[in-house]
Write a structure and sequence with these properties.
Elements: H1 2-6, H2 10-13, H3 18-44, H4 47-61, H5 63-66, H6 72-76, H7 84-107, H8 121-131, H9 160-170, H10 172-205, H11 207-211, H12 217-233, H13 243-267, H14 279-294, H15 296-299, H16 306-311, H17 318-346, H18 354-357, H19 364-395, E1 405-406, E2 415-416, H20 418-435, H21 438-467, H22 472-494, H23 502-531, H24 536-541, E3 549-558, H25 567-573, E4 578-590, E5 602-607, E6 614-621, H26 631-652, H27 668-676, H28 681-692, E7 699-700, H29 716-735, E8 737-747, H30 754-770, H31 774-777, E9 785-793
Parallel strand pairs: 3-4, 3-8, 4-6, 8-9
Antiparallel strand pairs: 1-2, 5-6, 5-7
Helix pairs in contact: 4-13, 4-17, 7-14, 7-17, 8-21, 10-12, 10-19, 10-20, 10-21, 10-23, 12-20, 13-17, 13-19, 21-22, 21-23, 23-30, 26-29
Amino acid sequence: MASRLGSDDDADNNKGSMWALEQKLDQPMDEEAARLKNMYREKKFSALLLLRLAYQSLGVVYGDLGTSPLYVFYNTFPHGAKDREDVIGALSLIIYSLTLVPLLKYVFIVLRANDNGQGGTFALYSLLCRHANLKIIPNQHRTDEELTTYSRATILERSFAAKTKRWLETHAFNKNSILMLVLVGTCMVIGDGILTPAISVLSAAGGIKVNRPDVDSGVVVLVAVVILVGLFSLQHYGTDRVGWLFAPIVLLWFLLIGGIGMYNIWNYDSSVLKAFSPIYIYRYLRRGGREGWTSLGGILLSITGTEALFADLAHFPVSSVQIAFTLVVFPCLLLAYSGQAAYLLLNLDHTKDAFYRSIPEKIYWPVFVVATAAAIVASQATITATFSIIKQALAHGCFPRVKVVHTSKNFLGQIYIPDMNWILMILCIAVTAGFKNQNQIGNAYGTAVVLVMLVTTLLMILIMLLVWHCHWILVVIFTLTSLVVECTYFSAVLFKVDQGGWAPLVIAGVFFIIMYVWHYGTLKRYEFEMHSKVSMAWVLGLGPSLGLVRVPGVGLVYTELASGVPHIFSHFITNLPAIHSVVVFVCVKYLPVYTVPEEERFLVKRIGPKNFHMFRCVARYGYKDLHKKDDDFEKKLFHNLFVFVKLESMMEGFSDSDEYSLYGQQTVESRDAVLNNNNNDNTASSNVDLSISTVDSIVPVRSPSPVNITVQSSDRVSSHTEVDELEFLNNCRDAGVVHILGNTVVRARRDSRFYKKIAVDYIYAFLRKICREHSVIFNIPHESLLNVGQIFYV
């Protein structure tokens, strides 16, 4: 065993690192596991399974896009179509919009940019953060890059991607601009979560009035509101129990609208198929003038749900989503729109209810029921996507702390956020009852959708350069094609800002202020922690007793720092006469990965000599993981702490070998020199840890591998020391665990500008007051909690 390890070059570079030892011990197992994993994946995504997954993806991914035929023609021609050529031109625009945006851009390009199955703007941002140093809060450690889920491509030094990476990293303005772009996209997705249920359910409920003209419009709005209240009220149950119904409902919906479309083409006017010629787009825009240009805001609604398609990708393989779109969704949508257009060619004044009026009388009510069910499924998918992206924003420190509940034990992505659920419901009802008009809601919906698409396009440019390393010509083609289409639609919706388009801008503006101010406050708090952290030399100068009485028990000090001793600790020991026998600095941090495997979650390190009994434990989570501080978490924390002590003792078994020296080449003189360097906090902390602690960095702790490591008899002392320390830790744990939380209050300086005072002293303070406290999130018993307050001025 020793010879095999000794021959590895890494041993020389990682002296004293237990992580290096474990990597070498586990390497053959990792290679075998990777080979079996690849075989499993090849077998997993067989043709039959792909078809099954494609069927299941219909209910999750395509509900929103599939319900667009309910309201597109009404929003395109709110006052009726003037000419048959207008209908043909509008249909031609719909056909090529569906082809260029959902089919070519999203299904075959953007979906490939998923982060291990996760989609949305923050998933793209996480992908970029792994390939370039774009995170504004610098809380990452080099060991984070060794995670199995921390995948990234290698960038050649002289490539255009490397130049782009350096340009982005060297300018703080670039990092802030990308973050603000992501926040804008996120706010627009939240707007989608409000507007999609409103327009989908209201349009579906509008079928009552078509078949019963004597019914008042207020009744339709009331029915829509009742459905919406029921929909949001059932969110806490999750979709796990009824999710199996979604796919058959949406599949039935697509087959119905496709079949009705075929019937209408054959029954009314098959000449509508000439709309597949793009020449009719040119004629439509030339003849329509400004009115024709503004009608593009209605055409835009035919591709709404496309961004939700990406955000709801969930755990479906990209190939299954592509199969579902090309074989079912795309042809059925083309048939549905073509059928409605064929009907409108003979009934130009029926644009308001084109969908319901084109349904054959005999199947009208069954189609109405399915349409309502499909609208509910579409709304559910958008609400779920909104919860998901808020959870991602929360993990990146861009959203106030809110309660997140997992509604399924089997599917990690199914979550419920109670506070946001009721906010969405109130806003959705306000939009539905306030506008009472599909056209105004459609204008608002189109504004939100096109802005999200623009954000995705801009982020995709960076993805293609930094992650995919595409040739610049391909990037230019993608950029120009996307921007021409989306900017055209954006210019059209600008004309409708005063006709309902202001709604998503106001909603997004409010959420943007909330998210940006929260992120600013979080960043300033972290900078305060970084700049005011205590030097290791100061801690060592206190001696093993830390200048206080060490009382039995374990003190868990929560901090946002993944390295160094936080200022809260010095504040604590200078104001109180005692400290616990064992002190563990606990840092819970989120990384730009979708999940962190359980066996790689904890990083443990000893701080100072052994007789100080001080440790650091970093618990790492991905943006899809849910952290809940409960007994299970505490049990895992102590388990990993004990494993660390055992591994540390095992490493001491090699202390007589130069190759496995825990102290490397550092001598007593160099160690003393480090202790005397009080000016550089970071250097002092890092170097002292290198020499006096038994490892050279924060190291991942895993359960000991089932490999027999024989420790020489001369190392019995270290084994005895290990037993003594483990017994000491157990006794301290039994004596009681106290959770010490820092409550840093951020305030603006007196000489700050007025907008900074408003942002920090009012908005951020209000958000801190109403959001969940750390003690609630960590589920800490009140009798075991100790808050340490401090004020920081920015």
